[in-house]
Amino acid sequence: MLVVRDMLDNGAKTLPTGKKGIMFSSNGMRTWNELAKDQADAAYAEGTSADKTVKRFSREEAVEVFLPQMSFLEGTDIKDSVAMIGKAYCSDARTVASVALKLGWAPMEGDEAWREGIRNDVKLLMKARPEAT
Q1: What number is the average pLDDT over the span 85-92?
Q2: Number of domains into which the chain is organized
Q3: pTM of the predicted model, to two decimals?
């Protein structure tokens, strides 16, 4: 809503763009590892995973596991694909809602709402699986 309001009121002149325009919403700081653990817990709770262990991958292992699943990378230079997988799955990045906070956004929910959102996402993904229909 804040982005649309800024676009309508200011012609998006005050919105950051490019790398500075990437916006996260968060009720705190999260690591990708914490997100993966929350996703694994949700999948386990839904019965779609027999284990909720999160495994750390080397870049090479991640490429071997994930590249065949990423059809959108077909035709991409293999070096670029490997770099993207390394950044997406082998990094220790943290996300903070700094851009959204500067726009005036404020979290209204806590950690349990965060986990509930992940559980809802897992439920929706499981329903959308081709074998579920």
Answers
A1: 73
A2: 1
A3: 0.62
